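Fold this complex.
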Amino acid sequence: MELTKINEKSMINVNCLVKDFGNHRVINGINATVSPGEVVVLIGASGSGKSTFLRCLNGLEALTSGEILIDSVPLERNSKSLKEIRRQVGMVFQQFNLFPHLTVLENIIEAPIHVLNRPKSKAIKDAQELLSKVGLFDKQNCYPGTLSGGQGQRVAIARALAMQPKIMLFDEPTSALDPELVGEVLSVMKQLAEDGMTMVVVTHEMGFAKEVADRVIFIDEGRIVEEGSPTQIFGNPQETRTQTFLGRLS
Ligand code: ADP
Ligand code: MG
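Structure:
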C-alpha cells in the first residue's frame, strides 16, 4: 500500500494503520487526517473497530503496522513519546472512572500536579475555571458518588481538559447515561468544539453529528467505507453499507 502524502498542517495523520488482535484484523488499512480545530464523528456498527482506532490514536494500543503522527510528531512505542502523546491527546470514555475517594476538584488537579508539576494553587485555579466551563463549579468539593452520570461525565471532560490537550477523543461518552442526562454532556462537547478543540468523537447521537461534526466517517470491518460532511453522509450516502447502517438506526 502506498503511504498517503503527509499533510504538514494536520493535527492527526494516520497512514495505512493496521491493528491485529492475534489473527483477527481489527483495523484494516486506515488512512485519515484531521485538521486543527476539526470535529470528526466516527460511526459504525458495534465491533467495527471504532474504539480500537481511538485507542491507537492516543497510544493505548501498539500498532501492528502503519504510522500515526500527532501534530507532525510520530507516535512511537517508547515511554517518553507515549507520555507526551497521552498528555496531548485527552480521552473520555463511556465509563468515566473518576477516583471515588477524591473530591471533584482533587480528581481534576491530580494529573496537572503529578504529571505536569503545576503548583497546587495554579492547578486549583485552572480546575475551578474548567469546572465553571462545564457548569459544575458548585460541585468542586463533592465526591463522585454523589453526582449524576451527566455530572460525572462533565467532570471527566474537565479532568481531561486540565492536561491542556491538543486533541480530545470521545468514545461513546453518552452511551451509559440516562436519556435525560445526554443533552448536558453533548452541550459541553459542542461548546468545546466551538472553542476550536480538535475532536474525534465516536457516538450514536446522530443529532450531535449533524449539528457539530465537520466530517463524518463511517467505519465497517476496520476500514473507512465512506466519509463526508454530515449533509452528505446522512442525506445522501453513496455506499450500500452506509445506507444499510443508517437505515437500521432510523
Ligand atoms: P467498536 O468500538 O467499533 O465496537 P472495537 O474496536 O471495540 O469495536 O472492537 C473491534 C473488534 O476487536 C471486536 O471484534 C473486538 O472483539 C476486538 N477487540 C477489541 N479489543 C480487543 C482486545 N484487547 N483483544 C482482542 N480482541 C479485541
Ligand atoms: Mg467501542
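The radius of gyration is 18 Å.
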